[in-house]
Amino acid sequence: MAKSKTANESEPVVIKKYANRRLYNTETSSYITLDLLSQMTREGREFVVVDAKTGEDITHNVLTQIIMEEEQRGKNMLPVNFLRQLIAMYGDSMQSMVPQYLEASMDAFRKNQQQFQEAMKGAFGGGPLAEIAKRNMQMFEAAASAFGTGMPGLPGMPGMPGMAAPTSSPTPSAAEEAKDDEIAELKAQLAALNAKIDKLS
Fold it and tell me: Which ranges in 18-171 belong to alpha helices (H)?
C-alpha cells in the first residue's frame, strides 16, 4: 500500500479567480486575499491559480501581482538597475535562458541562506567565529590607537567616559613600527576569517 502523502507532498491547492477579481480557495471553500496567498507562499504551501471561467492557469500573473503589491508597500527587493536589465532581456536571443538562470540562482541562495545565518550567528554570538571576530575587533582598536585616530568608543581617545588617556606618547619611529606591526597582524586575522567563511559557503 502506498504511503500517505505528507503536507509538503500534498497536491497543490486550487485557487479559482473570478471575473470580479475575487479568489476562491477550493480546499477551504472560502474567499481569500492576495495577502493570504503571499503567506501561503512563505509557508511553502503549493497552489495553482486558475481562471474560474476558462480553467487557464494564471498562477504566474497572480504571483507577479503579489510582487508588485509588496514592492508598492516599500518592501523593495528589486533594484532599479536589475529591473531595467530584466526588461531589456525581453525579445533578446538569450531570453529563454533567463528564467532557468534566475531560478537556479534563487535555489542556490535559499540553500546557502541557513548556512550564512549560522555563520553570522557564530561571528556575533557564540561559536567558532566569535573568537575570531573578537580578535579582529581588538586588532582594529589597536590599529586605530596606533594611527592616533580617536574613534568613539575605541582606545586612544582622551576624554571619552571610561577611556584613560595614554600615559606617554611613543617616539615617531616607535609609533610607526607599532602601526606597521598592527596592520600586518590585522590583515592576517582578516584573511583567516575570510578563509573560514569560504569553507562554510
Answer: 34-42, 59-72, 80-89, 98-124, 128-147
**Partners of residue 57 on adjacent β-strands:** 50
**What phi and psi values does residue 51 have, to the nearest 5 degrees?**
-70, 125
Vertex 10 angle, CA 9 and 15, to 5°: 130
CB 13 within 8 A of CB 40: yes
What pLDDT does 11 receive?
A: 87
Average pLDDT, the chain: 75
Q: Of the candidates 156, 157, 148, which has an alpha carbon nearest to the alpha carbon of residue 179?
A: 148
User: Any idea of the CA torsion for 110, 114, 120, 126, to the nearest 10 degrees?
Assistant: 180
Contact 129, 122 (CB under 8 A): yes
Question: Would you place residue 129 in the very low, low, confident or very high pLDDT band (cuts 50, 70, 90)?
Answer: low
Whole-number Å distance between alpha carbons of 200 and 128: 11
Paired with 49 in beta bridges are: 15
Decide if 24 contacts 31 (C-beta within 8 A): yes
The answer, yes or no, to whether residue 144 has pLDDT greater than 60, is no
Closest CA to 135 of 177, 192, 94: 192
